[in-house]
C-alpha cells in the first residue's frame, strides 16, 4: 500500500504541495493536477490507486470530475473542500466519493483517511467467496452483485457505498443491522448521518426491486435493516 500512486486534483498549489509532501513522507507516490481536465487525463493515463479531489475547480468542478471517474471505474476518491454543508457531503457521497475532508484540515488527517480508504479497497484477501442470499449473488472480490432471474442474471449497477452495505449484510443473512453499525462498517470516516444510510438503503431497495428481488432487503422497526430469504425465494436460483 505504501507504494500506492495518489493523484491530487487541487487548484491551489500550496494546498496540493502540502498534501503531496505529507503523502510522500509516508512512502506514497504523488502526482498533482491544477484543474479537472488535466486531472482526468492523468487518471486515464496513470491509473492512480486513489484520488484526492477538490470540489471548487476551474472548468469542470469536482462533482463533474468525480462523476467521470465513476463512469470509468471504482478508483477510490477523497473529496477535500471548503464546503461543509451536509447537502454538499451527501451529493459527493451519492456520486460515489469514498470520504470527505473539510478545509481547513490537518494534513495528517488526510493521510490517515487515505490509508483507511486504501486498506478497504486494496487489502481484500483472496479467501472471500461469493455471498448468496436467495436469488442474489454478491462477489466481494469482483465488486459485482447480480440477481438470478428466469431470463438470466441481472447485474446491479451499484455505487461503492451501496455495494459495501449489500456485501456487509449478505455476509450475515437474516440478521438485523443497526444503522450505526452500517455507518461504522460501510460509510466513509467522519460521515455518521443515519439519514445517509437510509438514502443508500432506499436506493438499494429500488435497484433490487427493479431486478426482481425487492423482498430481500427489509426494514426492522426500531433497529435498522435486514437482508434475508424470508419471502421464500427458491435457493436454486442463486446457483443457476
Write the layout of secondary structure elements.
Blueprint: E1 5-9, H1 13-25, E2 29-33, H2 36-46, E3 50-54, H3 62-72, E4 77-81, H4 86-95, E5 99-102, H5 107-122, E6 131-133, E7 136-139, E8 144-149, E9 152-155, H6 160-170, E10 176-178, H7 179-186, H8 194-211, E11 217-220, E12 224-227
Helix pairs in contact: 1-5, 2-3, 6-8
Question: Mean of the pLDDT scores?
Answer: 82
Total number of strands: 12
Q: Note the main sheet.
A: 5 strands, parallel
> Given the structure, what is the number of helices?
8
Based on helices, strands and strand pairing, what is the structural class?
alpha/beta
CATH architecture of the largest domain: 3-Layer(aba) Sandwich
Roughly how much helix do the residues carry, as a percent range?
A: 40-55%
Structure description:
There is one protein chain. This protein is an alpha/beta fold and 240 residues long. The protein folds into 2 domains: 5-122, 3-Layer(aba) Sandwich (Rossmann fold); 131-239, Winged helix-like DNA-binding domain superfamily/Winged helix DNA-binding domain (Arc Repressor Mutant, subunit A, Orthogonal Bundle), CATH 1.10.10. It is built from 8 helices and 12 strands. A 5-stranded parallel sheet has the order 2-1-3-4-5, with helices on both faces. A 4-stranded antiparallel sheet has the order 6-7-8-9, covered by helices on one side. Strand 4 (77-81), helix 4 (86-95) and strand 5 form a beta-alpha-beta unit. Helix 1 packs across helix 5 (107-122), helix 2 packs parallel to helix 3 and helix 6 (160-170) packs across helix 8 (194-211). The two termini are 37 Å apart. Residues 124-128 and 231-240 have low confidence and may be disordered.
Amino acid at each position: 500500500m505504501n507504494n500506492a500512486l495518489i493523484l491530487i486534483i487541487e487548484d491551489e498549489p500550496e494546498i496540493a504541495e502540502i498534501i503531496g509532501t505529507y503523502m510522500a513522507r509516508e512512502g506514497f507516490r504523488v502526482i498533482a493536477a491544477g484543474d479537472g481536465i488535466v486531472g482526468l487525463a492523468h487518471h486515464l493515463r496513470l491509473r492512480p490507486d486513489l484520488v484526492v479531489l477538490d470540489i471548487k475547480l476551474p472548468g469542470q468542478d469536482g462533482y463533474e470530475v468525480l462523476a467521470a471517474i465513476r463512469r470509468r471505474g471504482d478508483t477510490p476518491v477523497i473529496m477535500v473542500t471548503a464546503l461543509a454543508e451536509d447537502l454538499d457531503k451527501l451529493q459527493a457521497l451519492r456520486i460515489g466519493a469514498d470520504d470527505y475532508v473539510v478545509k481547513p484540515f490537518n494534513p495528517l488527517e488526510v493521510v490517515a483517511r487515505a490509508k483507511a480508504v486504501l486498506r478497504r479497497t486494496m487489502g481484500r484477501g483472496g479467501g472471500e467467496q461469493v455471498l448468496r442470499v436467495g436469488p442474489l449473488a454478491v462477489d466481494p472480490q469482483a465488486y459485482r452483485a447480480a440477481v438470478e432471474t428466469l431470463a438470466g442474471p441481472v447485474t446491479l449497477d451499484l455505487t461503492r457505498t451501496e455495494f459495501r452495505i449489500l456485501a456487509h449484510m449478505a455476509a450475515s443473512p437474516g440478521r438485523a443491522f443497526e444503522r450505526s453499525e452500517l455507518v461504522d462498517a460501510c460509510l466513509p470516516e467522519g460521515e455518521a448521518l443515519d439519514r445517509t444510510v437510509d438514502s443508500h438503503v432506499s436506493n438499494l431497495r429500488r435497484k433490487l426491486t427493479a431486478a426482481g428481488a425487492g423482498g430481500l432487503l427489509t426494514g426492522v422497526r426500531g433497529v435498522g435493516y435486514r437482508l434475508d430469504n424470508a419471502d421464500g425465494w427458491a435457493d436454486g436460483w442463486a446457483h443457476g
